[in-house]
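During the reporting period, we have paired protein sequences with backbone structure tokens. One record among many follows, to show the layout:
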Amino acid sequence: MRHEVPFADGPAKHRVGRPVAPTESAREDAGERAGKTASGAAGVTVKICGLRHPDDARYLEQLPISFAGLVFAASRRRVTPEEAAAIVAALPPGVRAVGVFVNPCDAELETVLAAVRLDAVQLHGDETPERCAQVRARYGLPVIKAVGVPAESVAGAPVRDAIADAVARYAAVCDTVLLDTASVQRGGTGRPFAWHVIPAAFAAARRAGACLWVAGGITPENVGMLVAGYPLDGIDVSSGVETQGQKDPIRIRQLVERMRVHVPVSG
């Protein structure tokens, strides 16, 4: 298992500027938080992605939400570094900020990190395992790498095996691998992929000591089926907790409540 890079700790209101170097105790604590999930020991992690306003951050208060995603790639949910800093400042204590990028260059990452205290970087493009390892080492932040999975109607056993192979390659150098529905817009489709690929992908991630998260068309209506029927460490939800394109606090709460019927929710 590779050496852990922790999620930066500290009150949300102070999360502006570059992260400080982590201590060994912080590394160990982060490993505990990030690793014990699919086995049932600590529950399933929840990330709410695509926050666009400080009010979206406040909707997470008093809920077991571990991560909030800020999109810096081309998307209707894209935010500027200045907007992101205001959102991060409004996050409840304990909710970690994840920056979502698509094929970023170092200059783009450095511009964002100079303005926003991120706790992790999510790479949602064509980044190679080598590029993921480079980002992780250069910025001292955990890396979440998205792997696209075809929609339900086209994914058979060969696709399952190919996805597991891709997960294994990224899990060797990343902290978390995220399965998401393959699309031109790189996420945010609101459509699920073929969930039957999850068990093999989860096993591949576990062998490398990484976590496996799932995204793509997750809603309060189907989350119970997902978390009860498939092994995973976390879920990543955006459009599924929106109403008319805006984050909906009622749907966020429904998502958590319906998960809790089946599994513990870590937060």
About this structure: The chain has nine helices and eleven strands. The longest helix spans residues 157-171. Residues 12-259 form a domain with the TIM Barrel fold (CATH 3.20.20.70). The chain has one domain: 12-259.
